[in-house]
Design goal:
- The complex is a heterodimer of chains A (89) and B (452).
- Chain A has 89 residues and is an alpha+beta fold.
- Chain A has a single domain (2-87), classed as ACT domain (Alpha-Beta Plaits), CATH 3.30.70.260.
- Chain A has helices at 15-25, 57-69, 81-87; strands at 2-10, 29-38, 41-49, 73-79.
- In chain B, helix 10 (236-265) packs across helix 12 (303-319).
- Chain B has 452 residues and is of the alpha/beta class.
- In chain B, strand 3 (112-118), helix 6 (125-140) and strand 4 (144-152) form a beta-alpha-beta unit.
- Chain B has two domains: 26-191, Anaerobic Ribonucleotide-triphosphate Reductase Large Chain, CATH 3.20.70; 215-442, Anaerobic Ribonucleotide-triphosphate Reductase Large Chain.
- The chains are: A alpha+beta (89), B alpha/beta (452).
- At the A-B interface, strand 1, strand 2, strand 3, helix 2 and strand 4 of A face helix 1, helix 3 and helix 10 of B.
Chain lengths: 89, 452
């Protein structure tokens, strides 16, 4: 199963490293990263593969959210299907 | 390949523009639990509902979490109860409503629809008992919703039922007077009711449906409003195109969620209802979309045309996005549940007459309208008759959900809380329709040709 991780917040040292480490802890493979600074905000989207991840989705969502909260970042993880449905015919 | 913009567009729609799945409604047939003994029948109703919908709420919550899209309501609709209870010798059908209520609470849903009767052409004794039980049933339950179909394009309008429903609405308001007539917010009078509507209070599971089915209602007035802000001053062709594109995206998401819920629950997917359902939250209003098209305030001249365009474009955009479309499909205009409508009604520009005109071109009807508690039952019946006539002649669903609030007069506000919102009490004509309603009988079905 593929999912999209999005990160938005104030730019700072170690965002990508921190998010990737958290993902690695859960055995999640990163397939693609796209990142930019939008209106002064760090904005990143990652396509990840959850095939080997054994953690329930809810827990994963909370873990990423918690990681972000301490750093003023909004981090979320959503199944890729919702974006495909809305943006691809 | 998805772009960064695509991803953040979707996230912004959900975060800032109130995009959500309004409801996942599981339709459950109760035809196989019909039996002669009242108590046993009630037990079987409870058992079947709780068995079928056991995982509905949990599944909805899982989908919310994984896809990051809010699913506001998880609900249940059942076979019209008059058909189920009609086999028993029960004098009152209130125990059947209580069984539905108990089952809804056990499943964790927030409404259950189907305390209903279809009497467009005539009453069975079960229909009469059900209708007579409505006021008490709605007063003593929390989650049960009731609907009565009093007319159709093929059958005409049952004016005896129309007269009766005026009295039933008054009595329901009286029995729930301590809650500002809340019972009436759970009671809909239909013409051309549909069998697969996922929206309350009018949902029931039609007899032509499968044993169990998943219907989904999408929503997103805020998303359409936001999209239209990007085409200020442009001709209507651009407006229509923009709405269609937005409706397509919203509906695709609804279709995906419906398919996912259906797969996880192992219940067939029924339909997606292409709807724009407002909430009282700022930025989630249908009225504000109409105003964005250039109207100073909703209800002024031009509102009907604006709504016609909106309603049609939503359907055109949505139809291609879903494999099966049904339900009520269109823009809803419930006064108390729409922040812009409330403002327009308070301003006095949005009147009952204008709302009636608007119901000719949209889904569904006079919805969530508060009127003075002194309004005569016959006047309410006459309002229902007018609305049913619009539905009957135009081959569309129309409905009336009206609340005569005891002790309140024109200009007072009523608060129903939550998504039911608040509404100003609106004026009705003082002149009597009593002799008109007293006639009874049926208004014959209209001609379907020579249309002018």
């Amino acid at each position: 199963m593929k999912a999209i991780v999005t990160v938005v917040g104030k730019d700072q040292v170690g965002i990508i490293a921190g998010v990737c480490n958290t993902l690695a802890d859960y055995n999640i493979n990163v397939l693609d990263i796209s990142q930019t600074i939008m209106q002064g905000y760090f904005t990143m989207m990652m396509v990840v593969d959850l095939t080997l991840c054994r953690t329930p989705f809810d827990e994963l969502r909370r873990a990423l959210g918690d990681f972000g909260e301490g750093r003023g970042l909004s981090i979320r993880i959503q199944r890729e299907d919702i974006f495909d449905a809305m943006h691809k015919i | 390949m998805l772009s960064l913009n695509n991803i953040f567009d979707t996230i912004e729609m959900i975060d800032k523009q109130h995009l959500d799945i309004r409801t996942i409604t599981m339709g459950i047939s109760l035809l196989d639990v019909i039996c002669e003994d009242e108590k046993r029948c009630c037990d079987k109703i409870y058992d079947k509902i709780t068995r079928q919908a056991e995982h509905l709420v949990k599944t909805g919550e899982d989908i919310e979490s994984e896809f990051g899209i809010p699913i506001v309501h998880k609900r249940i609709s059942v076979t019209p109860m008059s058909l189920v209870a009609g086999s028993t010798a029960a004098g009152s059908y209130v125990p059947f409503a209580t069984a539905m209520d108990k089952a809804a609470k056990a499943c964790g849903v927030n409404f259950i629809g189907g305390f209903s009767a279809l009497v467009q052409k005539g009453f069975t004794s079960g229909d009469r008992k059900l209708i007579a039980s409505i006021p008490e049933a709605l007063a003593c339950t929390d989650y049960v919703c009731s609907s009565v179909n009093v007319g159709s394009t093929r059958a005409g309008i049952n004016m005896d039922a129309v007269a009766e429903m005026g009295r039933v609405i008054k009595k329901t308001a009286h029995l729930t007077a301590d809650r500002e007539g809340l019972g009436c917010a759970k009671l809909v009078v239909f013409c051309n009711a549909v069998e697969d509507n996922p929206f309350m209070a009018g949902a029931f599971h039609g007899v032509g449906e499968a044993d169990s089915v998943i219907n989904v209602g999408v929503s997103g007035p805020g998303v359409v409003y936001h999209a239209l802000q990007g085409c200020k001053g442009q001709p209507f062709d651009v407006v229509a195109e923009t709405i269609k594109k937005t409706a397509f995206q919203i509906t695709r998401m609804g279709q995906m969620v419906a398919a996912e819920a259906s797969r996880r629950l192992n219940v067939p997917f029924g339909i997606v209802d292409l709807s724009l359902a407002p909430t009282p939250a700022v930025g989630d209003s249908v009225a504000r979309i109409l105003e964005e098209m250039g109207l100073e305030i909703c209800g002024t001249h031009g509102t009907t045309a604006a709504l016609a365009l909106l309603n049609d474009a939503v359907k055109k955009g949505g139809v291609m996005a879903s494999s099966h479309v049904g339900g009520l499909s269109g823009a809803f205009i419930p006064v108390s549940e729409d922040e812009g409508m409330i403002a327009a009604a308070l301003d006095g520009t949005l009147t009952l007459e204008k709302l009636e005109a608007m119901t000719c071109v949209c889904s569904v009807g006079l919805d969530m309208i508060a009127v003075p508690g002194t309004t005569a039952a016959e006047t309410i019946s006459a309002i229902i008759a007018d609305e049913a006539a619009i539905g009957m002649v135009n081959s569309k669903t129309t409905a009336v959900r009206i609340i005569p609030v005891e002790g309140k007069k024109v200009g007072d506000m009523i608060e129903m809380g939550g998504l039911l919102g608040s509404a100003p009490v609106m004026p009705v004509h003082e002149k009597s329709s009593a002799d008109f309603i007293a006639r009874g009988g049926r208004i014959p079905a209209p001609l379907q040709s020579l249309k002018n």
